[in-house]
Design goal:
Layout: E1 7-8, E2 17-23, E3 30-38, E4 43-46, H1 48-51, E5 59-63, E6 78-80, E7 82-87, E8 101-105, E9 131-136, E10 151-158, H2 160-169, E11 180-183, E12 200-204, E13 210-218, E14 229-233, H3 238-245
Antiparallel strand pairs: 1-10, 2-3, 2-5, 3-4, 4-8, 5-6, 7-8, 9-10, 9-12, 10-11, 11-14, 12-13, 13-14
Protein name: Peptidase S1 domain-containing protein
GO molecular function, one term: serine-type endopeptidase activity
Keywords: Disulfide bond, Hydrolase, Protease, Serine protease
């Protein structure tokens, strides 16, 4: 999905944001497909639907990226190949349940001011009412243009009951299991959009550090009234993530 109603992020503020890319047929270039979040020096979290249909050889991960149109950034980005991808075994292509994948880079990253991992959530708190920030290079409107600079937008986290009722008001009967997390406004206007999928929904913890509350998964349209964005709720997956990446 792409960010609607957001603004340009400042360089280096979201140092765990990555661009999950598909390499071209000959491998000389790659195109942005999804977002992702760096969780340690070797592993990226993204959405299952972002990589499920790709071979590991087709996936490239760009870290430290900010402006796709510029090579002259304060610090250069780094593009890595992938050694392994682990899509959650229960990922469902039709319902987007368990829409989570972990991707292992083919070489270890050197952290820098603009390349840092994000914390995993430390509790099962549902985070209802918390403000979260969504970041990505997705479209600026449904079917609209792609930005070159990383975008950010702040949206409140909703309860799943409220989310279900909002979708019903919009005439959509959807199922919201505990592993889903919704964020958005009744009147729309600010949301993720195509190209943001797989990227982080981040919340600032009481200790001042950001943690990965959600991975952007799906939505109906972009920023429409009563149709908030839906994420994979990461607190439900911390044991699985730790099992895979350690």
């Amino acid at each position: 999905m792409r960010i609607v109603g957001g603004r340009n992020a400042q360089f280096g503020v979201w140092p765990w944001q990555v661009s999950v890319r598909r390499s071209s047929f000959f491998g000389f270039s790659s195109t942005h497909r999804c977002g992702g979040a760096l969780i340690n020096e070797k592993w990226i979290a993204t959405a299952g639907h972002c990589v499920d249909d790709l071979l590991t050889s087709q996936i490239r991960i760009r870290v430290g990226e900010y402006d796709f149109s510029s090579v002259q950034e304060p610090y250069p980005y780094s593009e890595k190949g992938v050694a392994k991808k682990v899509v959650h075994p229960k990922y469902n292509f039709f319902t987007y349940e368990y829409d989570l994948a972990l991707v292992k880079l083919d070489s270890q990253l050197d952290f820098a001011p603009h390349i840092r991992p994000i914390c995993l959530p430390g509790s099962d708190d549902l985070l209802i009412g918390e403000n979260a920030t969504v970041t990505g290079w997705g479209r600026l409107s449904d079917g609209g243009t792609l930005p070159s600079v990383l975008q950010e937008v702040t949206v409140p986290i909703l309860s799943n009951d409220r989310c279900r009722n909002m979708f019903l008001r919009a005439g959509r009967h959807e199922f919201f299991p505990e592993i889903f997390m919704c964020a958005g406004f009744d009147d729309g206007g600010r949301d993720a959009c195509q190209g943001d999928s797989g990227g982080p929904l981040q919340v600032k913890g009481k200790d001042g550090r950001y943690f990965l509350a959600g991975i952007i998964s799906w939505g109906i349209g972009c920023a429409e009234a009563n149709l908030p964005g839906v994420c994979t709720r990461i607190s439900k997956f911390v044991p699985w993530i730790l099992q895979v990446v350690t």
